[in-house]
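hey m, so remember when u said the tokens were messed up on ur end? i reran from scratch. heres the input so u can diff it against urs
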Amino acid sequence: MLSLIFLIVFPFALWKAWKNIQMAKASTGWPTVSGTVTTAKRARVMFRKQPRVTYSYSVNGAPFTGQRISFAGGYPPRETDAILSRYPVGQEVVVWHAPDKPAEATLETGSNRQVTSQLRILLIFFVLIILLNILNFYLKRLDEQKKPPIRTYGAAEVHDRKWGDRAAGRRKTLIYFAAPYVESRTCLRIAVKIFRIPIWLPVFLMKAGIIPPLSV
């Protein structure tokens, strides 16, 4: 079930990670403005401590507020203090913003190992799930081969012409496991074909003990 959910969500997450990398590469050519750091603190994101920096800037007289430090999906906890020390409160910073959407801004541009980590993790998980499903299928096949053969005691096979005519003229095969109550499958087939009675009727009567089982 979890594999199915991941495979459904995977294309959307992959597209988002790829789009983030492309935006990081494009940010190196974005215009810049001067901004000011308003807050710098640690925040817990997905059970990890992450740096949270807020800065204000203006583009063509319109004020904006940003929180993106870079396009990285996250930072190692050991780097949190180093990042916060680079952006203390009140410091003047250079803000890079998208030319067609000034609200999209960042303090650090370009793509690096941390930016591409999301894409790598998604691909690794995808390969692992595929390998686990292949391994699971292979183990099931081995388990089925080791199991002893199941005794079905035979089956009575009858073709119902009327039913087949109703289903687009195709004759369908009805398989009834009647061996526990019928000793001769041949007798059962002959009785059904000659008298045109439904197969379930003699089986039901024999199972109920109303008529004796057929014999060779």
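this time it looks ok to me. Confidence is low (pLDDT under 50) at residues 153-184. if urs says something different then somethings off w ur setup not the seq
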